[in-house]
Amino acid sequence: MADVIDQANDLADSERSALVRLQVARGQQPRVPPQHATDGRRICIDCGEPISHQRLAAVPNAVACTDCEAAAEHRDRHHRRRSPWAP
């Protein structure tokens, strides 16, 4: 039973991350409040590690660390190429 619950939680986390990324890409403020570490730094929605100060200085509304954002952009490009509806 725990495996099913873990899978459901993983799916919910993935959908939440996708929604936040879509909102940020559209220039909207994410409706999900950013999570913060005990020292006040913002937490990456994908890996759970603190987002660097340099990234937040460059992208104040960042919700993912540099590595996770790069991985998400790579996945997005790959998905668009394979989609039959892509231009």
Automatic annotation (TrEMBL):
UniProt entry keywords in alphabetical sequence: Metal-binding, Zinc, Zinc-finger
The keyword Metal-binding belongs to this UniProt entry's keyword annotation: yes
Zinc finger (dksA C4-type): 44-68
GO molecular function: zinc ion binding
Every Zinc finger DksA/TraR C4-type domain range: 42-74
Stored Pfam families: zf-dskA_traR
Name the record gives this protein: C4-type zinc finger DksA/TraR family protein
Species this chain originates from: Mizugakiibacter sediminis
